[in-house]
Amino acid sequence: MLITLKLATGSILIGLVVLGLKMLAYYLTGSIALYSDALESVINLVTALAALTAVRLAARPASHRHPYGYHKAEYLSAVLEGVLIVLAALSILREAYFGFISPKPLDASFSGLAFNGLASLINAAWSWVLIRGGRKSRSTALEADGRHLLTDVITSAGTLAGVGLVFATGWQVFDPGLAALVAINILWSGWRLVKDSVAGLMDEAVAPEILTRIRHVISTHAGGAIEAHDVRTRHAGRMTFIDFHLVVPSTMLIAEAHEICDRLEGALKAEIEDAVTTIHVEPENKAKHSGVLVL
């Protein structure tokens, strides 16, 4: 968790540096496309702050009011990021519209393009660090922040190419045109981010391949039981919640059934990192005979 907090804090520092470089690039060139790129960096900084808050909140232990913990705070951060991305895109489209109506000549500043290119290289390196770190720590907020930065890198590359075309051809329409394309790409990125985060808030089940692994662990580590049924899963940040019914012989002692449950919980935690398992034990006459058979 300490590494996660360090990455979230690092995103704020990186965001400040990148924002300064891109605003300088816009100031030197007057390009609407570069303005759109700088505006997205403002959003990056705001969402980095939200990600840090979410990561710190998700690290808090469960409480009386929140017995399942605060892990979903990371999904809220990702939803906020998606909404802000959409708002930024709409602002860029507004500027692009006025740029089409009243095109303005750009200042052919090589230093402005160089500053923007340097900012994009920094974002590219940091996005890789965030995505890798987010996957390793299973932090939704960090991985979402990294993917957003990667989108920023791609749009920045297109923006630089478009501004270069304006300087090379003298056609001012390339500048607002590229800004509009950047805005559309940002809108798509924001929609995907909101969609994925809302799925987590709605307790979406784990991926089919992970569910297969869970069912296999139950089948091979529940010796003494008869079957398991109604296996259900959900994500909450980096945590994976698993619950199911375990059918045992009617004559089995409570202590024996409890030992099987302990064994299953340990095996599932070893297979699925940060798994939280809840098992409901049932006597044999309640069996559905339609679940996971024990090998």
UniProtKB/TrEMBL annotation:
One Pfam family here: ZT_dimer
Segments traversing the membrane: 12-35, 41-59, 75-93, 113-131, 152-171
Keyword Transmembrane recorded: yes
Membrane topology: Multi-pass membrane protein
The Cation efflux protein cytoplasmic domain, residue ranges: 208-284
Gene3D superfamilies hit by this protein: Cation efflux protein transmembrane domain, Cation efflux protein, cytoplasmic domain
Cation efflux protein transmembrane domain sequence ranges: 11-202
Subcellular location: Membrane
Entry keyword set: Membrane, Transmembrane, Transmembrane helix, Transport
UniProt record similarity statement: Belongs to the cation diffusion facilitator (CDF) transporter (TC 2.A.4) family.
NCBIfam families cross-referenced by the UniProt entry: CDF (TIGR01297)
Name recorded for this polypeptide: Cation diffusion facilitator family transporter
Species of origin: Bosea massiliensis
